[in-house]
């Protein structure tokens, strides 16, 4: 038992624990935005539960991306379109498809169970929450491992052509080694690239 308590205490002090709680907080914000929009759109503005869910999820994905990127994982600078933005939206789309199918199924079955509009609305919202709960853990793992986690840092535009530069001082002057990913090419200042 004490080993389990020790592991829990160590985990609570880890950066991973802090990220999980920040991700959970962003998920709460995103869920509140999505649910508020779903309440606003369905059934008053958009008659379809599925259409309302598509609109609500699409809008709530925008603040979720920026909050997760900057606050949860602490990434700064410009977003990388193919390494961050597109995969994040693909994950959001998968969640949207799953939640839309579940919301549509729930709305159809709620009509069969009761003719009450309030009952149908409650069922639609619970189905939406259930769908997002299903993918929450997988989404965190994917975002942490592949999009925003510590091993996903990419160089900024200033160093796009070279991955590292090393300068050494020797008796004959300064030699600069520029690496482009494959090999280092020693150059003396003023010499032409070869």
Description:
The structure is a single chain. The chain has 194 residues and is mainly alpha-helical. The chain folds into 2 domains: 2-154, no CATH class; 158-187, no CATH class. 65% of the residues lie in helices and 9% in strands. The chain has helices spanning 2-12, 15-41, 49-72, 81-113, 117-147; strands at residues 164-170, 173-179, 184-187. The protein has a 3-stranded antiparallel beta sheet, with no helix packed on it. α2 runs antiparallel to α3. It is globular and about 50 Å long. 21% of the residues are buried.
- Sheet/helix structural class: mainly alpha
What kind of sheet is the major sheet?
3 strands, antiparallel
Topology, number of strands: 3
Shape: globular
Number of domains: 2
Index terms:
9% strand; single chain; 194 residues; 2 domains; 3 strands; three-stranded antiparallel β-sheet; mainly alpha
Write a short abstract of this structure:
Helices cover 65% and strands 9% of the residues.
Strand and helix layout:
Layout lengths: L1 H11 L2 H27 L7 H24 L8 H33 L3 H31 L16 E7 L2 E7 L4 E4 L7
Antiparallel strand pairs: 1-2, 2-3
């Amino acid at each position: 038992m004490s080993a389990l308590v020790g592991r829990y205490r160590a985990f609570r002090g880890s950066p991973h624990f802090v990220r999980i709680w920040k991700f959970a907080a962003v998920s709460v914000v995103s869920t509140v935005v999505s649910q508020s929009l779903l309440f606003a759109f369905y059934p008053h503005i958009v008659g379809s539960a599925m259409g309302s869910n598509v609109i609500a999820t699409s809008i709530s994905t925008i603040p979720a991306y920026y909050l997760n990127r900057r606050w949860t994982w602490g990434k700064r600078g410009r977003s990388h379109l193919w390494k961050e933005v597109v995969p994040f939206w693909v994950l959001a789309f998968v969640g949207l498809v799953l939640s839309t199918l579940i919301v549509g199924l729930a709305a159809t079955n709620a009509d069969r169970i009761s003719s009450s509009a309030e009952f149908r609305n409650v069922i639609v919202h619970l189905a939406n929450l259930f769908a997002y709960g299903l993918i929450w853990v997988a989404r965190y793992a994917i975002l942490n491992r592949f999009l925003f986690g510590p091993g996903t840092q990419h160089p900024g535009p200033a160093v796009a052509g070279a991955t590292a530069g090393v300068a050494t001082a020797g008796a004959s002057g300064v030699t600069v080694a520029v690496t482009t990913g494959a090999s280092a090419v020693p150059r003396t200042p003023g010499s032409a690239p070869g």
